[in-house]
Amino acid sequence: MPGSDVGADFWMNEYITPWDIYAHGVTKVLAYQKTAYQEMYVVETGTYGKALVLDGKWQSCTGDEFLYHEPLVHPAMIFHGSPRKVLILGGGEGATAREVLRWQTVEKVVMIDIDGEVVEACKQHLSEMHQNAFDDPRLNVVIADALNFLDTTDEKWDVIISDLSDPIESGPSFQLFTKEYFEKARRVLAPQGFFVVQAGPVSPGELVLHARLAKTLTTVFPNVQSYSSPTCTYGRAWGFILTSEQEINTRPNPENIDQLLQEKTSGGLRMLDGVALLGMLNLPLHLRQAIAQETQVYTLAEPPKFFGQGSVK
Amino acid sequence: MPGSDVGADFWMNEYITPWDIYAHGVTKVLAYQKTAYQEMYVVETGTYGKALVLDGKWQSCTGDEFLYHEPLVHPAMIFHGSPRKVLILGGGEGATAREVLRWQTVEKVVMIDIDGEVVEACKQHLSEMHQNAFDDPRLNVVIADALNFLDTTDEKWDVIISDLSDPIESGPSFQLFTKEYFEKARRVLAPQGFFVVQAGPVSPGELVLHARLAKTLTTVFPNVQSYSSPTCTYGRAWGFILTSEQEINTRPNPENIDQLLQEKTSGGLRMLDGVALLGMLNLPLHLRQAIAQETQVYTLAEPPKFFGQGSVK
Amino acid sequence: MPGSDVGADFWMNEYITPWDIYAHGVTKVLAYQKTAYQEMYVVETGTYGKALVLDGKWQSCTGDEFLYHEPLVHPAMIFHGSPRKVLILGGGEGATAREVLRWQTVEKVVMIDIDGEVVEACKQHLSEMHQNAFDDPRLNVVIADALNFLDTTDEKWDVIISDLSDPIESGPSFQLFTKEYFEKARRVLAPQGFFVVQAGPVSPGELVLHARLAKTLTTVFPNVQSYSSPTCTYGRAWGFILTSEQEINTRPNPENIDQLLQEKTSGGLRMLDGVALLGMLNLPLHLRQAIAQETQVYTLAEPPKFFGQGSVK
Amino acid sequence: MPGSDVGADFWMNEYITPWDIYAHGVTKVLAYQKTAYQEMYVVETGTYGKALVLDGKWQSCTGDEFLYHEPLVHPAMIFHGSPRKVLILGGGEGATAREVLRWQTVEKVVMIDIDGEVVEACKQHLSEMHQNAFDDPRLNVVIADALNFLDTTDEKWDVIISDLSDPIESGPSFQLFTKEYFEKARRVLAPQGFFVVQAGPVSPGELVLHARLAKTLTTVFPNVQSYSSPTCTYGRAWGFILTSEQEINTRPNPENIDQLLQEKTSGGLRMLDGVALLGMLNLPLHLRQAIAQETQVYTLAEPPKFFGQGSVK
């Protein structure tokens, strides 16, 4: 059967746009659950290993997640230089925590995820992702709404990482891509701290979300810098936005960064080093222009509505 | 019908790997032809404009081709600084010529494409791509086999651009991704010249082709530098390899480049400027490692066999 | 490439239901046109020959159209016994006319189709379908709205065949599946005449359309008989409804029918003979029950809305 | 997301031919297992309920399985008239046994299935199919190879039902579609007995398997009769072949059959009654011709190789 030779019999179809579908052949369904917040699959795919899928949106897979999680975590950590306390908002797979915990300077990590059932499934089925990060005594996982959590703490954090699912309508995350949420994050960020947001695709047909997130963040933080990584199972490169009270040098010296990583981390990075960081921070012209020209700001009254639709009513 | 609201009724499915399909909804078929060398479609898609498809492989589309053609052309031109004579091997859409002709220093461009029927179809249906480049008196289009052409000329070229379709089995191009072909190109490259090759995807699951092309080129040129661009309708980032007798500075000063482009080109670049070039040249660690560790060289006896299969017998 | 070995690169996807897609690999696009009424493709497929596609709905293809057109035409002709004048409403491909013209008793055929551009494309690209029926002097093709045509004639017809595209919303046909339209047809049907309607799929998940059409026809004609044929490229069996002032014998003697066909037609039938007709008229129990229990009638005020959506505004 | 409105995110693609795919949207994966013999999924689909999928081939689903299981079982039972002992070869879902057990004359049913893991999964997840047939004391399930079983028994059976998965290469069943196997079945068939075989699709593009099975059976039994049912989730009608030492009347009196069913069964049939049986036995001409003209016979040396490929090595 074709399935054996060149394709699969089960396919997970993700609509990148209404006219572009990225379909991954599924060789095995490891877990399926309709949680209180979303519909979850953990599947094994033909080429890129095991994947987590929430509300029909590909979250990450073992075969290329390092292209997402390393860029999400390390630039903020590097620019801080010696992060001790790190707050992760979202991050169910445990891979964001895994990268944070590579830093020997880190003393305390709190990870807030709204969906305990997803976290449990990832613990059980995606050990390649978390690599036992959940067992590290420095990590504390709290099942809670990130928006509420930020109101209940006065603790200050060196690095805050917003690792949320895309802001699709009826999904659990769209309120967390707004000015109000970013202001709550700023309140608990240490003065020397860095706040980083996973910030959507940077392909020409879908730049609006990223550009508006960047614009929204400029109303909250004095320094806002976009960067991107060549993720592949998302079907296009992914954007991140780093913000701080501190200046962000887009032309850092690669050799200095390599030295910092060697001194302060336990190693193991696959894609990110000094050269890679220099590359990621220097974006193509059209992307910088789209960000610079954007005027609209996301608020709770006018939140983003990313293409797609979740299962929350 | 679903077609009207969220999708299309006709889809062009490209197998990225045997288990990953990128499907583009086709709203109109502008041209179809079984040429002497390959099967050609020119189609209109829902999100990314008009596309050229050869032997079932997406070549380029109007909506994001600038992410391919600008990186293909300008780094070589910039590093040369004042290119006068440029040779394009392949490049049927005319978009590579379009970018070359932006340089006011350019006096002569020869474009060698094997498939005159494809060139004609592009002239007629893809004016957004060529933007009348074919009418520029500096351009001479020759319908011929690139491999043969290189043997019949002793002219020297400042920049040679290898803009060929992927080296799929039975396709018309696989022989042009070999040491022997690269040596023929070197023979007609001016001493100060630069030779650049479109060099396949740089996604983790498909790095072998790019890495072996880089290794193969190191057996022919003293300086070989990979770089990549965040193409999106290919479903992943694309790689290029720049080679020369001259050194290639991977940390050029962006402001100097912007000044050069302003002085020597007629402008109009959308994605490439000094900052973008700095970004593209500084690759992720895993990609540099894969290139450095590769040992195999492509030859006519052992050419590449990229995933896919053409129609040439 | 997969396309060469086991699949195609272009696919025509038809949503049978919102959760079931029948996809046909397209090897060539012979014609594409956005007509005044609908969107039309004529394509070549891998297994079943050339196909006509209107508004994303598969109409018929050369590889199995005999399973649709023979059952559509011959039962009405056979039950009449000696049809001289036949009216075809719709039937753009010319295959319905082809079957009608096999009857040597036939003196006059009028075919009313709303879309002259579709008829022209079929003439040019689908000769396997019409087999030069359009050249038969007995056939007169009128490009007009069937609904209007019926009001403008007082001529009486021995057999009237309603060969219309499915009644999808915004398509050109949904008004022609109503009590009012059927009454217009009855007015011009000869007393000994038979009226037959292509009447949608008879699969368990989609029985409503067929059952309501049958119910609607019982409000207009005293005798109404459903039957079905094992069409395959539609992805399920197809239903037809035969109606008349005359009684319809569902257990005809096959040998008598074979003799009638031999005497009165020029032969060439592939699927329909006496035995086949006996089989088609004797439907499964669940289908007869669904028809018997249906209570709703389609009217111009409440026309059918078959799954799918057309392009007419 | 499209998944919520008109389609699914997970799809089970079945290649009907290399160029025709029937894709069913999967809303839930109930069970997945790589058994000793095949790869098994039990899934929930959007339109047609729960389905069993083996080696990528759709076996049956709750929404239309009555169109397969009733025609498979009852014609043989009806023609026998008073079956007491029934042997089922295959039939893992338990739906074939369910239909057999409707007959009050039945005293003993033995069901031989090679794959105990599939039977267990069906028991657990497909109660709509077996409807507790497994609890009926008249039924004895034996996990064994049907080919071997037939050699080890001298018991005679009134009805033998071959309900095997399609004879794909490397699947567990292809040897059971051969002259040798049919001879083994004949040895244990009572003189008044009937043997029925599920016998592949009867669509024009795939008639060879059915026609050759019919031809093969004519070398073993004096009376061989094909019939078909309008199954829909298989994407085309399905064929069966009934064989016996006894004559098979293809024009039975429907009323007599209805009376027999009323007297001897507990009722509950949805599609099959006297009228339906009359319809099923009277096949289209092209199908009868293909069967009549076939000359090739399947043997263990030259078994069928149905399109598709299993996982058995």
From TrEMBL, chains A, B, C, D:
An example of a Pfam family matching this protein is Spermine_synth
Q: Which residues cross the membrane?
A: none
Q: What's its EC?
A: 2.5.1.16
Q: Where is the active site?
A: 163
- An example molecular function term from Gene Ontology annotations: thermospermine synthase activity
Q: Which UniProt keywords apply?
A: Cytoplasm, Polyamine biosynthesis, Spermidine biosynthesis, Transferase
Q: Which domain of life is it from?
A: Bacteria
GO aspect biological process, one term: spermidine biosynthetic process
Residues recorded as binding S-methyl-5'-thioadenosine, renumbered to this chain, are 38, 113, 145-146, 172
Keyword Isomerase belongs to the record: no
The reaction(s) catalysed by this protein are: S-adenosyl 3-(methylsulfanyl)propylamine + putrescine = S-methyl-5'-thioadenosine + spermidine + H(+); S-adenosyl 3-(methylsulfanyl)propylamine + spermidine = thermospermine + S-methyl-5'-thioadenosine + H(+)
The answer to whether the entry has keyword RNA-binding is no
Pathway, per record: Amine and polyamine biosynthesis; spermidine biosynthesis; spermidine from putrescine: step 1/1
Residues reported in the UniProt entry to bind spermidine: 69, 93
Which top EC class is named for this enzyme in its record?
transferase
PABS domain mapped to chain residues:
9-245
Its assembly, as annotated, is: Homodimer or homotetramer.
Functionally, this protein is described as follows: Catalyzes the irreversible transfer of a propylamine group from the amino donor S-adenosylmethioninamine (decarboxy-AdoMet) to putrescine (1,4-diaminobutane) to yield spermidine.
> Which family is annotated?
Belongs to the spermidine/spermine synthase family.
This chain's protein is named Polyamine aminopropyltransferase
UniProt organism field? Chlorogloeopsis fritschii PCC 6912
